[in-house]
Design brief:
Number of strands: 5
Order of helices and strands: HHHHHHHHEHEEHEE
Structural class: alpha+beta
CATH topology of the domain at 205-340: Heat Shock Protein 90
CATH architecture of the domain at 205-340: 2-Layer Sandwich
Helix content: 55-70%
Strand order of the largest sheet: 1-2-3-5-4
CATH class of the domain at 205-340: Alpha Beta
CATH superfamily of the domain at 205-340: Histidine kinase-like ATPase, C-terminal domain
Strand content: 5-15%
Shape: rod-shaped
Length: 340
């Protein structure tokens, strides 16, 4: 009973329509009570002006009450409209608070947030499928390069060696050796392309050996790798995402930052796995990178790195400044069984 007498209870549990009905009914009831009193207390000539005045006051009271109720009701709607307008594809969608006084608005806000949750989940699932398809295609092309193109080039190199053993002419031997060097360089480039597309060591041995192989590749910068707290292999999506982030960060350090030293740090802590890639290059202003990828504008692969981290419910931070190097930090949630 006390609850029903509390004005705040009425405010939070009545819909806008019910509030309008209650307010108008109260004003009409007050007029219905005041009318007979005026009729009994005033004579014929003075009675009419008082009744007209009472009617005017009642109409004004109804208009004012309806205006205030509707104004308070529509104010949260503007907040809902603002949040809906802030939703953008590719970004973390905002959420609307659900503590509105009007129960109808609370239901609308709850339904809206549920819709955003479903859309975000579907976007994550779709993007993960796209990335998985890309990785499968990379793996297929890498295997074809290694097994078919690589073997064909190796066969030609062996054939040239046999031909060189049988050739006595110095000029012909010189030409054959030049062709052999070209084939050897091509074979080395095919192997490098195959490793860049999808290193077999990532599938066969896991992330840590793949990062060691990446660090040993000739890139122009001295690369140091440190691993801590990793006892066993991580789930394949996490290994792929962290490897691609490290690969992209190392490419940026060599291609854009002109770094002479790069440190890669991988460790498990507090139920998360964290990858940190730090270089001593020229750096840049992170504020110059827009929040969303713009067609025709290079983003140093940051959008792809961030998307990979976000799809696994993780985060990616870029810390940099001109002439102060760049640090890329990716942190992904991890099951406890993988941390040590």
């Amino acid at each position: 009973m006390r609850t029903s007498l509390d004005p705040r209870w009425w405010h939070r549990n009545l819909t806008t329509f019910q509030k309008v009905v209650v307010a108008n009914s109260a004003i009409i009831a007050a007029g219905a009570v005041s009318g007979p009193l005026i009729t009994l207390n005033f004579s014929g000539r003075t009675r009419l002006p008082f009744l007209l005045g009472l009617l005017a006051i009642g109409l004004v009271a109804i208009l004012v009450a309806n205006f205030l109720i509707l104004r308070l009701a529509f104010k949260p709607m503007r907040e809902l409209e603002s949040t809906m307008g802030a939703v953008q594809p590719g970004l973390e969608e905002p959420r609307v608070h659900t503590n509105f006084s009007d129960p109808d608005l609370r239901r609308i806000a709850t339904v809206f947030n549920t819709m955003l949750d479903r859309l975000e989940h579907e976007r994550h699932v779709s993007a993960q499928r796209v990335l998985q398809a890309q990785e499968r295609e990379r793996q297929r092309v890498a295997r074809e390069l290694h097994d078919q193109t690589g073997q064909a080039l190796t066969h030609e190199i062996i054939s040239l060696d046999l031909l060189l053993e049988r050739t006595a002419d110095a000029k012909a031997r010189q030409q054959l050796e030049a062709v052999k060097r070209t084939l050897e360089e091509t074979l080395e480039e095919v192997h490098r392309m195959s490793q860049d597309l999808r290193p077999s060591v990532l599938d066969d041995l896991g992330l840590v050996p793949a990062l060691r192989t990446l660090a040993k590749q000739p890139s122009g910068a001295q690369v140091a790798l440190q691993v801590d707290g990793l006892r066993e292999r991580l789930p394949a999506p996490i290994e792929t995402a962290l490897y691609r982030i490290a690969q992209e960060a190392l490419t940026n350090a060599n291609k854009y930052a002109k770094a002479s030293r790069v440190n890669i740090d991988l460790r498990c802590l507090d139920g998360h796995v964290r990858l940190r890639v730090r270089d001593d290059g020229i750096g840049f202003d992170p504020g110059s990178i827009p929040e969303r990828e713009e067609p025709g504008r290079a983003g140093l692969g940051i959008f792809g790195m961030r998307e990979r981290a976000t799809l696994l419910r993780g985060t990616l931070e870029i810390r940099s400044a001109p002439l102060k190097g760049t640090e890329v930090v990716a942190q992904l949630p991890l099951e406890d069984s993988h941390a040590g």
